DNA sequence: ATCGATCGATTTTTT
DNA sequence: ATCGATCGAT
């Protein structure tokens, strides 16, 4: 394994790479269209590639990398390719590898954060860190901030820690250290954010830790304060820099790139302003909009030929996004079908987009499931379909439905493996073993499982640590030498320290996976979860096992811990044929044959918060999100909106999203839901408690024309027979929510049912049908 | 030190 | 509905 940042192996490069006879053009240039090819072959100077959805962006990037190497314009370690996500980095490395083989390994290729981290480790001492600094995740960040707030006597009610944290992070995104925060910004959050920012940074340094923002922010500091030592070598070395998803870069990333690119000025940024959906996280669309001013003499190439979606989908997406003002302007053209297709030729244009009105979220999920079953019956694969939602919470109803229907699915971007409670605890053990002064880890696990080390003991340790400038571990050793603790607590603490010390020795001669299983067993963590009656506990035990397996792939504890901090995801288990369920944000960069876009309702999408906080800018970003959603689909788009939705514990009636009005009628077919007004209303059993006064979408609204739903009874739930159907034990039944089950007891209108998924339940007979 | 109950606030997106 | 924080009892 070579470390691209290892300057020790760096020999002053020949002034220019030998411009020997340029090799013949390689075969992989052949398949490119003229614009793509131009984007690959324009190697000199700043270049902006505006790449619309589905126009072969990744292909251009990877081919460009291969081209640079093939033409001997640079050696692998003289090229940096930066991505936004780990997924993109992985994919790029794979695909470049396919083109050029092993040299791909030596490219500086990774996410901003990964590259930033590796760079920073080389120069950590310049910002008062040690090169083995740890990387804090969101959870630890927040805990730390809360501690500081407590020390400063700030009321977490009046100033919510997450909001304060967000504020600090946005400063970091803009490349602002505490001193550099402009006075106009210092009043934010009643001034508390700025008041805490400095101490927060101090604390991080004491702990020899960085948060995510620091990985870039500290780089900038280092670049500026020690250019000759920590910047120029890189500037000279990096002949070419490529950036993916440039529209998502924040100011800090922009500055970082600009500094590194100053040597050779061969900066190639690829992006799409229409897909900028991360402004809330500090991303600056301005970066891409300003590119030509920032880098005078820049070339701009537009990729507009879309090879992914049908003409109808492209037309719909284009018309929708045309409602945005701040854009560089691109028009997606269909890349395949030569325009020979005559206007009325439906086949050539592809299917119309379907817009479907449903009663509520449950029905929404049900119809999607029905469509999926039909799709399967037609020989389609589930893995060709995706359900895209605006917020993570929306996945739940779909999960329930898919589970009861027996359709395999996967949730992308759900609670991630390394973020799970039990995993974080287990990893904290490893962290403490690897680094005794990892106080965050120490605090996290010192009393987990319970070993009688409570708040009182911890408080003593904190005091001592602060007074003596010690880590908690060191303070613990100190305190045991004194008699400050009660014997009982002292004994427990001593036992804990000894255990950790013991594992530390084991770690030296044992592979990480084995170490982990020993720790889990000997610490009692595993037993703790085994003994937990919580229904989720067994799953946690499984996760811990999986963790041990995952650890087998790592050489050392250190490499694993770096992986955990930066990658945060576990290799996905072999998937099989599953439908994908995820948020719109998570879907960027992916494509599917069939796409279901759920929850297109005002307040939810566009999301109310986006509108409240950012006004028009927020709306435009939501619209870009819609654009991203539409352009994920190759063949078929199905949009749904519910008339009612439960938002926290309350029912709310919803209006269809304004985005629906922005889709061209010519390419859309609007459907009412099956059985909406017929069977459904009755199934609420005269429950007028909902205060429903008719489907909101049916209320007259001048510029909307949504058909009234046809009163067809729902396919999966025939109305229950009026004279209470006679169910008897042993009978197989179907319940709308719980799926299939067997009756174990029947008494009047009430049944006991053993469901195949979800266990035993008591259910009113009218809610089930014979299966 | 630990546990349980109660109360209140909180809901976007995540490298 | 779910999560945290807080408080009082054991």
TrEMBL record:
ATP binds at residues 51-58. Residues 30-310 form the UvrD-like helicase ATP-binding domain. Residues 311-589 form the UvrD-like helicase C-terminal domain. Residues 675-692 have a biased composition (Gly residues). Keywords: ATP-binding, DNA-binding, Helicase, Hydrolase, Isomerase, Nucleotide-binding. It is an enzyme of class 5 (isomerase). GO terms for cellular component: cytosol; DNA helicase complex. It holds the Pfam family UvrD_C. Its EC number is 5.6.2.4. It catalyses: ATP + H2O = ADP + phosphate + H(+); Couples ATP hydrolysis with the unwinding of duplex DNA by translocating in the 3'-5' direction. One of its GO terms (biological process) is recombinational repair. CDD domains: DEXQc_UvrD, SF1_C_UvrD. Residues 12-28 have a biased composition (Pro residues). GO terms for molecular function: 3'-5' DNA helicase activity; ATP binding; ATP hydrolysis activity; DNA binding. Residues 1-30, 674-729 are annotated as: Disordered. Has both ATPase and helicase activities. Unwinds DNA duplexes with 3' to 5' polarity with respect to the bound strand and initiates unwinding most effectively when a single-stranded region is present. Involved in the post-incision events of nucleotide excision repair and methyl-directed mismatch repair. Belongs to the helicase family. UvrD subfamily. This is DNA 3'-5' helicase.
